[in-house]
Design a protein that fits this description.
The complex is a heterodimer. Chain A has nine helices and 20 strands. Chain A is an alpha+beta fold. Chain B starts with a strand and ends in a 14-residue tail after the last helix. The chains are: A alpha+beta, B alpha/beta. At the A-B interface, α2 of A face loops of B.
Amino acid sequence: MPIEFALPNLGENVTSGDVINVLVKEGDVIVGNQAVIELETDKAVVEIPCPYGGQVKKVLVKKGDTVKVGQTILIVESEVAEKAPVVSPAKGPESQVAAAPPEEKPSPPPAAPTPPPVAAVTAATTATAVAPEPSPLVEVDSRLLPAGPAARRLARELGVNLATVQGTGRHGRITVEDVQRAAQSRAEAPRVTIPSPVVPPGEPGQDSWGPIRREKMSKIRKTIAAQMTRSWTTIPRVTNFDDADVTDLENLRKSVPPDFLGEGLKLTFMPFVMRAVSLALRHHPLLNASLDEENEQIIYKEYINLGIAVDTPRGLVVPVVRNADQMTIPQLARALSEVARKARNVEFTVDELRGGTFTISNLGAVGGTYSTPIINYPEVAILLLGRSRWLPVVRDGQIVARYMMPLSLSYDHRLVDGAAAARFLNEIIDWLQNPGKLLLVS
Amino acid sequence: MDIELVVIGGGPGGYAAAFLAADLGMKVAIVDQEPRLGGVCLLRGCIPSKALLHVTRVIAETEELKEWGVDYSKPAVELNKLRARKEKVISILTGGLKQLAAKRNVRVIHARAQFRDGQTLRLSPVNGGTLEDNVLRFQRCIIATGSRPVIPGLFPTGVDRIMDSTVALDLPEIPDSLLVVGGGYIGLEMGMVYASLGSRVTVVEMMDGLLPGVDRDLVRPLQKRLEGLFAAIYLNTKVAAVHLVDNGVEATFEGAKTGTERFSRVLVSVGRRPNSDNLGLENTKVQVDSQGFIVVDARRRTAEPAVYAIGDVAGQPMLAHKAAHEGKTAVEAISGHKVAFEPRAIPAVVFTDPEIAWTGLTETDAKRKGIPYEVAVFPWAASGRAQAMGRTDGFTKWIIDPKTERVMGCGIVGPSAGDLIGEATLAVEMAASARDLAETIHPHPTLCETLGFAAEVFFGQATDLYRPRKKD
């Protein structure tokens, strides 16, 4: 019987997406849960799996189309109208959300005989107002791959897609070691650099002065643009500049043996800065607040969720590390590496980009000293780290070389006065300049 | 009362989940309507039926010994003693569970639980018991309420002559004649027990074969044996009407077999239904499908964020070992691990004599789904051990992917098939190739050798079996 497969719900507030790629064509035979299109939503690029197996009769979307939730994507001719169990997305650790578990809609149970599939999809769509669904990030169906339960379990934990792992065991069996190697090589994978000269994307065209290319703005770029405009037109922003003497911190950081925190986990300044910011926010709740203009109220957040600005090939994203103030520096280092990995691999879910209370942006790896970062609305402040460098500094009447980290703190002047911001920044600097204190404080 | 994790149902899924959660440091409670832990499996399912089938098997063996020149007299069955001995097995095991729960500080609450909302249970006492608090707030809940036998409406209820599996396991008497309605595994296991204790057993099955869904070749040796043991097996036949008569039941058949026959008792074993009703699920976002199964995702989470469901109530197959693994998956998910319940193989065993066991892909499924496969069969007639036991009616078969030569499934029929299927399940989970099995040295002389021999058959060369080679 022919079954229509419509775009399932993709999560809170996501109503449509742009088709980046169509992964199947008419006549293809697909198995249940095979990814059929790649879709870019406001926040993330996701593969959309079709729960039905069978022959693809019709593909109703093409690259570049904007598809709404509930819109039919494919018609599948299925002999046995059997809906495969949907593999649910690998999500962040649940322990972090013990208080308010993320709402999810479960997949239909494997053994249930087909309820009329079209109706089922419709029902799921209408239910969204009440129960938001997870974004359907896909885990490749690993059941047919030559890997035993222990290897499959580890792959799930490490977020390794088994289909991409080369098995070294007998008859190509994927061993636990193969999975570990895959996870590690991925962590070490060099960043893709854009070759020069760069041919910009888009359709070639012509204006009065010469050839041009026009590219449709991606969803993520539109989201960035809207968010920046909103911040710029709403928030009277002021930026304070300062430097932290991180010479001692740098020595301490370098004294930690490589792989001390875990294989492939590099200890950078960031976890220390995150720790310092979290501690300072505890003492300066105004910087962790937001403004409710409508009700003329100040909302103080009793949780500290740090947004980390991550540069990805598709644009800027700000995944959130939750309850950062309750994490130790090693935990922060791990959380950061996970966030960076997910951002690079476009694996984060919409939920992982929500609920931040303060943002840290680190330009240190790229270069530059000071900048005037735009506040991530509705937050009220953002801290930008520049690249630390050796500077001549006067200490006790002597010029000495010290390793200095440039800091730029932008804040919403409606809520935060200049002196309050300076005191906050002073506390951050104080923590960074006294790493012993930073390590011992609980 | 506030609790970190509450598990509704103390069966093999529920207590496995509760114990793991407690071992991981959670504050855990189990709510069960039964005064004893263990659920259907332990109290009125797997365990008591295996105790009785053990007796059945020994009686059958004494008979088999006649042809070896050893003659036992006909056994005298003392029903009270048999019942008590079976009950002892249950009380030892359930007592052990009670101790294990106590040592782990798992609170066992004897009560009926209903959801008031997605975070709260309302408890009500059972059998006049008392409760210290009738509201239980939880951070997470696992529903493990299991299933119960289905009794179609045409059978009168509240009559001791019409039994479900629970009553049948209590061995109220050894009836002269017993009609078993439903030729599934429960009906055949209980039918065998009663037949070996002396009842004339008739089985009626609506479908065209016993054990619907199981590969036909696996059923055949069992059916042959049952034809000798049972008075009659009616296939393609329905019970159209049932009338209570003096000291018996009259059943009218419809289909391949027609007419009316009289039986002392009837055992209705037509299937089981998930216990998802009367839980107050309508006060939560938990969704239930058309068959009553709670809808869950790969981590066993329901549509209600803090509520999980495992075991029989969360979908087929309704098997204790599946429930236990689902329970552990749910608890690991709750404690923040990235886990999913996606086994390649869930073994199933019918504990008749001969036993039938299968795991992973079956031939029936492979055909239905159009999956290419090859079969390699080793008949037990060629096994020294089976000959020495006088039981050559079994065989071992692998279902193999012709391209990769990996084993996708296994089916075994014969005594101890249920114990042999473990190796096969590991092989399927590990994606072992037929070569792996053929080159693994199996002990001689055993029945598990047949797993290695069947793999040799796939390559066309088995020591104990001569077949002209079909391929080079």
